[in-house]
Structure formats: structure tokens, C-alpha cells
Amino acid sequence: MRKGVHDVLRSTSRATRPRGLRYALPAGIAAASLVLAACGGGSGNSSGGQDAPGADALKDVKGVTTVSFWHAMDGKNAEVLTQLVNEFNQAHQGKIEVKSTYAGKYDDAITKYKASIKSKSTPDVIQVYDIGTRFMIDAKQTVSMQKFIDRDKLDVSDLQPNITGYYSIDNKLYSMPFNTSMPVLYYNKTLFQKAGLDPNKPPTSLDEIRADAEKLSKKKGGPADYGFGAAIYGWLLEQFIATDNQEYCDQGNGRDGKATKVEFDSPDAVKVVSWWQQMVKDGLAANTGRDTKAAQAAFKSGQLAINLESTGQLGGYSQAAKDGGWELGAANYPHITSGSEGGPIIGGASLWIDGVGHKDANKEAAWQFVKFLADKKSQATWHTGTGYFPISKGALDEPSDVAYRQANPLFDVAVKQLENTKLTKATQGCLLGVMPQSRKASEDGLESALNGADPQEAMTKAAKSVEPLIKSYNDSTK
User: Fold this and answer.
1) Would 191 disulfide with which of 116, 123, 273, 305, CB 3.0-4.6 Å?
2) What average pLDDT does this structure show over 319-334?
3) Phi and psi at residue 33, in whole multiples of 5°?
4) Do domains 42-119+121-181+347-422 and 183-345+434-476 have the same CATH topology?
5) What would be the CATH architecture of the domain defined by 183-345+434-476?
6) Which residues, in sequence order, are bridge partners of residue 392?
7) What are phi and psi of 421, to 5 degrees?
């Protein structure tokens, strides 16, 4: 019996945590381990725990095959998901029934999942956030989507490659993307106009943001309190590194082998931190801290003219602009320097099909459900109902989706940004077992620099603090 991965994903995720909440580093990392695949017992089926069953696995099954589905969606997102689950069940009445369960926010869901591995009671399908990908692969509990795709010789050309790329290693898709977001630059067109800037020419690089902030900021006689402001948020730093086509961690961003160190203390990353520090020192940028709600509120109220955030904020920002009588603009995420060929990394979560301990019929029924959620019609429903980016290219041509984007034209900025981003290991993102802790450490470094520390020293110290965590994780998964 082999001991496995420690509880590295205990901290709260970027999509769910209150932005002021700090990541909690686990004490006694080696002790907080899970019993993984080698301890999982028999597969309870003929095809093997991590293998795809035969395509006829449901053919001779009598009665209804029940698919247990754990998810982390609440509010409006949960309503739309329930709608899709009901639609699937109706179409497969008498044969398959999906029973969905809210497993809590992302971190709660993965904690519950880890407990289910120990008790050999994993769900048939689970939704896991992007930064849980390395753990899910190492846990060796699931059937990769690639095995189903290869078995069925399924044409997956409709799936957005820059989305599936995150969840793939060596062109092998491990999980099916579901809810996807991207970062963009938001700006107040009305303030741009008041500052004498072209409202249709948003900044594209650090130098251009500073140049615009010089005219926008109150300290320089501009119409806004600050030209720029964004939360001290590790995800944003990751995006800058990717738009410069640089890798966040070694071993090809954790895709040529398990990463052994993070590289957010590289010259390019430190350049961002130094730029940000100088912007704050010069009164051109606000230091709103780690709570993204504070930065969002400052932008909505017109205190900030330029802000970096997820596409998930488009609805809220659009409403704020309407209520406040100003015009919202959105643009591609900025590059560190003009002309670099990288692009931003997607965020969100994906769907995993469990294999160990699950019958072939359940695995096959789960696959039918996952395929349904990835279909262009389902993705159009999901996109227009939630604002999450569709993983299906065809979804964008569905009448409901076309109408949605006509009513929300700024969303096309993200569509084009995604389509124009070249898929590289840099833009795929880093796969790291301790990614939550790494993100928290980068925030420690950035915050320290904004409070006056030397940028290089702050980021090097932060990067070094992650190395023992990575080593402990990697040792636990040998």
C-alpha cells in the first residue's frame, strides 16, 4: 500500500475565496497524505479501474444506471447546471439518471473527494478546479478523456484547443473542460476621453499602461484617483508571465515532468513587480491589497481607470457602467513588452470520470453525460446562462449565443483573444501539485514589494519558500 499526495489543496481557490483570505500552508506536509490508487482496492469491473469500458457497456444493463455527479456550482450557475442535468435525464429516461450533488466550493469539493478516495466511495463524475489538475492525475483514480475519445475515434475539433490544452499533457486530454474564464483588461472609456486619450485605443503593454496612467491619475491632474489598480493576486502575475511566452515553473511548465521549482522570480516576472511598485510609489496605481472585491469596487466607482480581472466580471462591470453613466471598455490582457507572442491562461474547472471501484456501465454513462455537457448546444446554454466561456467553437454559432454576444459585444474581446493565442507550454499553464501554495507565495512577494521591499529579493524569497513544498509533494507521488 503506497502513501500518496498530501492535502495540498486545502487552501481556497481563486474562483471562490474571498480575495482577502490568505492561503493556509499545511503543517506537517508529509503527514497529511492520502491513500491513492494503489490502496484503492479492485476496480469492480472487467475493463480495469483506469481503462475505458467497451462502447457497449450499457447495452445489456437492465434498469437505470445512476451517475453520481459532484459539482461546485451555486447560485445562478447551479440553476443552469440543474437545467442541463434535467435535460440529459429527460433524453435518457429509463436508461441513465444523473444525480447531481453540490459538494461545496472548489476546495471543499476536493477535500470531500480526497475523503471519498480513502473510503472507496468516489462519485462517478466530479468537477475540479484548474489548479487541482496535477493532484487529480497523480491520484490515479480516473479514466482519462483521451481513452474514451480514442476508443470512439471521436472528432474533437470543435473543442477550443486553448482550453483543452490546459488539461492535456503530450496531447492526452485528462479531463473535459467545463466552466472556463479568461483574464482581460477593463478600462473606463469615459475617463479616457476626459483625460484626452483615445477611448478606442486601450493600452497593450506595461509601458502603455503607465503612459495612460500619467494622464489619467489625479496626482498628474487627471480625472481618476488612480490610473491603474488591480488586486494583489497571483493569478494576474501568472498571466503576465504567459503573455510574455515564459513558463511559470520548470520541466516545461510541469508538462515534460513534475516541476521542481517555480520561476516567478525570473527577470520578466520581476519586471512586472518592479513596474507595479513604481506605479504605486508615483501615485499612478492604487494598492488595493489582496481582496479583489476592493479593486472591483474601486473600478466600478470610477476611482480606477484601468483594471485587470476575469471575464467573469463583465456582467457586474457592465451594470456598474450603466448605473454610473460611464462607458466600459475591454481589451486583451496586456503584455510585459509590446510584440511578445504569448497569451493568457484559461481558468475555471473541468470534469473527471472516476474509474477505480466503478462499474463499466457507470463509466460509460458518465462519459455520455460529459459528452452532452461538452456539446455545442449545451455549451451555448451554459455560456449564455452563466457568462463562462464556451469550450465548443460551434456554440458561438448557436442562435442563442449569437444574440447573447450581440447584447454583450465586449465578450467578443475574450473570444478573439482566446482564438489568437498560440498554444504553447507557456500558455497552457503550470501543472504543479502545490499550485495554491505557490500562488499564495507569489502574492506574499508582490505585496512585500508594493510595501517597499526590493522586488528581486522579495520574489526570490517567495519562490524559494515553495521549493520544499514541491519536493515533499513530488516525494509523496513517486
Assistant:
1) 305
2) 97
3) -105, 160
4) yes
5) 3-Layer(aba) Sandwich (3.40)
6) 159
7) -85, 125
